[in-house]
Specification:
This protein has 314 residues and is α/β, with parallel strands linked by helices. It has 2 domains: 151 residues, no CATH class; 152 residues, Rossmann fold (3-Layer(aba) Sandwich). 35% of the residues lie in helices and 25% in strands. The strands form 3 sheets. Strands 3-2-1-5-4 form a 5-stranded antiparallel beta sheet, with helices on both faces. Helix 4 packs across helix 9. The longest helix is centred in the last third of the chain and has 18 residues. The protein is elongated, with a radius of gyration of 23 Å. The two termini are 24 Å apart.
């Protein structure tokens, strides 16, 4: 989920003088559509951002949030299995323990947004006396006796596209719909003009050795979409050296074999080359830019979801 949208809603509504509540899933019993740590933001006028189900409980959640705002007191409410709401059931049969926290000011929202914008891990600590944004990833499970929990959040996946051709626009647009931050490096002036007109940040590649233009962090995926593979080697070498959770490259198996030989000749360790996702995507031999984009993004999201960033930080 795009946490930025939740906390931007809270910051803007509180700045406009509206009372708001932060709603958080504390624990899940059985099956549910959302994980612990998922948020909704609710304003006193009943408007909200985010969701905690597929539409099964949102109206009741908004009503509880507004009641908490009226009483100016936090509360924990059970929804689904074991809930006092006998007429509200989750189709999956599970149960959710949900925390409602009226916010006295916009500090928590501003602190969380600052961490999100800086691409820093942060935690949200919940207790009887309120919620607090803390630097770093420090999760702790819900303690029903004390009413406490802490949820850790990593930066949203970011996608750097390096290449040329129509595939750049197709993948950039699809990634945007999934709330990924996207940046593009390309020698293709026509692709540059189109992507900039769509609002994407684009950096012009002038030489195959423009490796200093690549910047990354552990929550970044780098996808190479070159048909002319001579552009790749120095840039791929740099990408594999940088922090990342995914590096992938377009091209058939024969092209990838030649790529691996060139990377070895350039001094890239075989262990690093083995981490390269190529041919890119969950399904290969895509014949049009849109299918390639879908295949590549599905693979990138799958790898992001499967990566244990907590262990990597430790």
């Amino acid at each position: 989920m795009d946490q930025r949208r939740i906390f931007a809603f809270l910051k803007d509504r509180i700045a406009a003088g509206q009372a708001c509540a932060l709603v958080t899933v504390l624990a899940v019993e059985g099956s549910a559509m959302r994980n612990p740590g998922t948020h909704m933001a609710v304003s006193e006028d009943g408007s909200f951002a985010g969701s905690l189900s597929g539409g099964c409980i949102e109206n009741a959640v908004v009503a509880e949030a507004c009641a908490a705002l009226t009483q100016r007191q936090p509360r924990i409410v059970r929804f689904g299995a074991g809930s006092p709401y006998l007429d509200i059931r989750l189709p999956c049969g599970g149960g959710l323990d949900i925390h409602f926290q009226p916010l006295a000011d916009g500090m928590v929202a501003r602190d969380c947004l600052a961490a999100i914008e800086a691409r820093r891990p942060y935690s949200l600590a919940i207790g009887p006396h309120g919620v607090e944004c803390r630097a770093g990833w420090h999760p702790a499970p819900f303690d029903p006796a004390g009413g406490t929990a802490s949820f850790g959040y990593f930066p949203q996946a970011r996608l750097i596209l390096v290449g040329h051709g129509e595939g750049l626009s197709a993948l950039a647009l699809l990634a945007r719909t999934c709330a990924l931050e996207v940046a593009v490096l390309t020698p293709d002036e026509r692709a540059q003009d189109r992507l900039q007109s769509l609002g994407f940040p684009v950096t012009k590649l002038n030489r195959t050795t423009d490796t200093a233009l690549l910047h990354s962090d552990p929550w970044t995926a780098i996808a190479f979409l070159f048909h002319d593979h001579d552009w790749e080697i120095a840039l791929l070498r740099r990408a594999l050296e940088l922090p990342h959770f995914y590096v992938g490259a377009m091209g058939g198996r024969r092209a990838h074999a030649a790529r691996c030989e060139a990377l070895l000749a350039a001094g890239v360790p075989a262990s690093a080359i083995a981490t390269l996702h190529a041919p890119i995507g969950l399904f290969h031999s895509s014949r049009d830019p849109e299918t390639l984009a879908l295949s590549a993004l599905a693979e990138i999201v799958r790898v992001y979801q499967a990566t244990d960033f907590g262990s990597a930080l430790a």
